[in-house]
Fold this protein.
Amino acid sequence: MKTIVLLGISFSVLLGGTYPSLLYHGNCSTCHFETKSVSAPSIKLVRKHYMNAFPNRDKFVKYMSEWVYSPKKETSLMQGAIEKYELMPHLAYDKKTLEEIAGFIYDMKF
């Protein structure tokens, strides 16, 4: 049992150590690579658009998490990305989880 706990702690430290980091890297980075746009815009590009519109962390987190919870073309900050990659699909995450991820994205250092 002690070995399993130590392995779990070691694994989480290697991947960034925080719950929001694990959420982002385990889910979002599948499509949103850090700096390269492939099947979706890079998270660096997404973050830039959201930071320009919402420099305040609370507003950034609120808008991003609400948009990802219910993505709509009309409320997107990235119309060009929708034309290039299509609208982001609806994901089955609760708002609290999306707020954790959005806060992590706001705080990301590249």
